[in-house]
From TrEMBL:
Signal sequence interval, chain numbering: 1-19
Chief subcellular location: other
Keywords on record: Cytochrome c-type biogenesis, Redox-active center, Signal
Cell compartment(s), UniProt: Cell envelope
GO MF annotation: an example: oxidoreductase activity
Gene3D superfamilies: Glutaredoxin
Name this polypeptide is given: Peroxiredoxin
Biological processes, Gene Ontology terms: cytochrome complex assembly
PROSITE patterns according to UniProt: THIOREDOXIN_1 (PS00194), THIOREDOXIN_2 (PS51352)
Cellular component terms (Gene Ontology): cell envelope
Domain Thioredoxin: 27-168
Length: 168
């Protein structure tokens, strides 16, 4: 009986420790945006330096992720039409572990009008986080993170839209 009790305590301690394991967020609000390069299948490179001085929205998604689908539908319906022509704003929707070809096929199916960028080896995503998608980061003109979100809810999306409006 004593051994069963000790085993139960050890198991609960392990479960508690696991639940409080180190955070999977590598980039937090207030941090400087990590430098990165988007590399297309054809070898074209877009450096994050290109976006200096702009408000940048970075979204990480995967084509198989249901919450990502909801978020990208809201981006297509609400966010993109409002900000796509604003020269102070840049949006990077990055497909984690996807190639240009996969993203093109996906975009044809979904009918999104915003560009999708590849991150075949998680090189970009890995500079921001360890896991969990969708993830969204709003970067201010000074290069610092103003908003960092994971998952998707309508409420958080509304808050993000308000944050973008205030920042621009």
């Amino acid at each position: 009986m004593k051994n069963l009790f000790l085993t139960a305590i050890l198991a609960l301690t392990f479960i508690g420790a696991k639940a409080q394991s180190p955070n999977d967020d590598l980039v937090k609000v207030g941090d400087k945006m990590p430098a990165f390069s988007i590399v297309s299948d054809n070898g074209e490179v877009i450096s994050s330096d290109k976006f200096k001085g702009k408000v940048i929205l970075i979204n990480f998604f995967a084509t198989w992720c249901p919450p990502c689908q909801k978020e990208l539908a809201s981006v297509q319906q609400t966010l993109w039409p409002k900000y796509k022509d604003n020269n102070k704003f840049e949006m990077l929707v990055i497909g984690r572990e996807h190639s240009d070809k996969e993203l093109a096929t996906y975009n044809e199916k979904k009918g999104f009008t915003f560009p999708l960028y590849p991150d075949k080896n998680r090189a970009i995503f890995g500079a921001f986080a360890k896991n969990l998608i969708p993830r969204t980061y709003l970067i201010g003109k000074d290069g610092k993170v103003l908003y960092a979100g994971k998952g998707y809810t309508d409420k958080e999306f509304t808050e993000l839209m308000e944050k973008i409006e205030k920042t621009l």
